[in-house]
């Protein structure tokens, strides 16, 4: 039983049923997404902090421009003035997507992971600008994530590509799916695919922090498939979260999923955006180093390595330049936590901020080491080099291992000059 025995049919196209999930901020890089596309699968880029990402890879200066515009506010606890320039958001998104899709070379596709919880001081307008610009720039698919996305389809219903772009939704429960579908049916725009993300995934989780252990991906996928069958809705279901080997993936597909979305194995790929030093942290992690906590100001639990530098952040909120998590009244949990800690600070004692982190800076600086539950197994997937560091496989090696491996085996990469 192997993944290569199957193909994922989406509208009139067939793909290798392996999707590399979106990993913000720029962990699922253009290069990582393109490696899946080249091999006939689907790769995601993410639009998390897109202005900042565009500045990093395309030498634009949206972040500096915004920081300069609002520099007068830097010492102010009230961040309600800090709106994003919607034209800049759209332009950055367009440049980033064009940069990626213009390099397509295979038969696969490039999708974009778009998170509703990235509220950017004006959630509806900024999400609309990002989705519309991605479609304008030729994205093959939009994966709606991090939120119920009840009103998201309404935001783009007048876009010329509304019916032709692939639209998918990530859900972690049947209840979340039915809420989304209610509106989708009203708009006569069913999703083209549904990603069921279970409790072992990386990034934010769609479960309560204290009960994710009570759920398992197999049961949720089966429940969703049975529901769609009962409702006579033919929408492919993709399983995500904790699928570590090609055999794990093939097992899901054999039992009714149309494909799998995977991410953790690719965090250590050479094409992943994490700095090499951080990739070694992932590879060295043990099971007890992986925690689910509630420090994200989004309000969702998040899985990360417990030695993530972001957990020790005491930096002043950087919303004048970033500010991607400001809600519609200009608030973010970290701002409160920071100013409360500042007020409570005793002279000469270091400040500690409990319970919240500045996720914008943490993710932008690769200091928030979010990861899937199976991260501690990454060492099974590669080899240690004579000087003591782990060899980093290419995304192609990992993708082909998922596609062709059998019997739970993992093909380790062969470093140059070995074997
Ligand atoms: C480092 C990392 C960052 C992630 N970031 C995001 C994200 O920005 N948005 C999102 O919807 N999912 C995110 N995810 C979830 C993945 O896209 C994917 O669905 C999930 O992790 C698959 O499970 P696996 O990592 O066990 O293979 C992230 C996962 C990882 C490992």
Calculate the terminal CA-CA distance, rounded to whole Å: 28 Å
Sheet with the most strands, sense and barrel status: 8 strands, parallel, barrel
Q: Which ligands occur here?
A: flavin mononucleotide
Mind telling me which CATH architecture of the domain at 3-274 and 393-404 this is?
A: Alpha-Beta Barrel
Give a structural overview:
This protein has a domain at 3-274 and 393-404: TIM Barrel, CATH 3.20.20.70. 32% of the residues lie in helices and 13% in strands. α2 crosses α4 and α4 (86-101) runs parallel beside α5 (123-136). The radius of gyration is 21 Å and the shape is globular. It has an 8-stranded parallel barrel with strand order 3-4-5-6-7-8-10-11, surrounded by 7 helices. Strands 9-13-12 form a 3-stranded antiparallel sheet, with no helix packed on it. Strands 1-2 form a two-stranded antiparallel sheet. With 419 residues, it is an alpha/beta fold. The mean pLDDT is 97. It has helices at 30-38, 50-58, 62-69, 86-101, 123-136, 152-156, 174-186, 217-230, 246-254, 276-284, 333-344, 359-364, 395-404; strands spanning 8-10, 13-15, 18-20, 42-46, 109-115, 141-145, 166-171, 193-197, 203-204, 237-240, 259-262, 290-293, 302-305. It binds flavin mononucleotide. The site of flavin mononucleotide has 30 residues, from β5 and β11. One of its GO terms (biological process) is 'de novo' pyrimidine nucleobase biosynthetic process. Pfam families: NMO.
Write the layout of secondary structure elements.
Layout: E1 8-10, E2 13-15, E3 18-20, H1 30-38, E4 42-46, H2 50-58, H3 62-69, H4 86-101, E5 109-115, H5 123-136, E6 141-145, H6 152-156, E7 166-171, H7 174-186, E8 193-197, E9 203-204, H8 217-230, E10 237-240, H9 246-254, E11 259-262, H10 276-284, E12 290-293, E13 302-305, H11 333-344, H12 359-364, H13 395-404
Parallel strand pairs: 3-4, 3-11, 4-5, 5-6, 6-7, 7-8, 8-10, 10-11
Antiparallel strand pairs: 1-2, 9-13, 12-13
Helix pairs in contact: 2-4, 4-5
